[in-house]
Amino acid sequence: MKPGPMPLELYRGDSASWQFRLYDDEGKTIPTNLTGVQAKSQIRDRSGGTSVTDLTCVITLPNIIDVSLTAEDSKAIELTRGFWDLQLTYTDGRVHTIVAGGVTVTADITDSDSAVVLQLPAAVMP
């Protein structure tokens, strides 16, 4: 099954969090039982890429997955565009990626470490 599309728009240096509630039916009346399931999520520059940012995943039974990114980890992201996904591994070894998408990271202003030098055009003398 193909993961649901979910692009992330991050602001470098800011904390971020997302919550996913999984159900076994379209009416969302039967919570998915996530007992024993492990959740893992990463941001990368590309599939198999070496630029990796791990996202924290916490499962609250029966069916809630909280995914978060600390301000410190967000500030360390060097890419401006990348990809992410959220992968579940079940006790029987099955793996299911539930959401995935592109990542856009906007550079921060306050508390940023990199100085930006503006090149102003030279004044035109008459």
**DSSP strand (E) fraction?**
35-45%
**Main structural class:** mainly beta
CATH class categorisation: Mainly Beta
Count of domain modules: 1
SSE string = EEEEEEHEE
| Total helical segments | 1
Average pLDDT rating: 91
- Uncertain segments are 115-120
Roughly how many Å is the radius of gyration? 19 Å
What characteristic shape results from the CA principal axes?
elongated
The CATH topology name reads Immunoglobulin-like
Q: Which CATH-level-2 architecture? A: Sandwich
CATH superfamily: Immunoglobulins
Record field, number of beta strands? 8
Main sheet: strands, sense, barrel: 8 strands, mixed
Gap between N and C termini, in Å?
68 Å
Give the proportion of residues in helices: under 10%
Report on this model:
The chain is mainly beta and 126 residues long. It is 4% helix and 44% strand. The protein has one helix spanning 71-75; strands at 4-5, 8-11, 16-21, 38-44, 52-60, 64-69, 81-89, 95-106. Strands 1, 2, 3, 4, 5, 6, 7 and 8 form an eight-stranded mixed beta sheet that branches. The protein is elongated. It starts with a strand and ends in a 20-residue tail after the last strand. Residues 115-120 have low confidence and may be disordered.
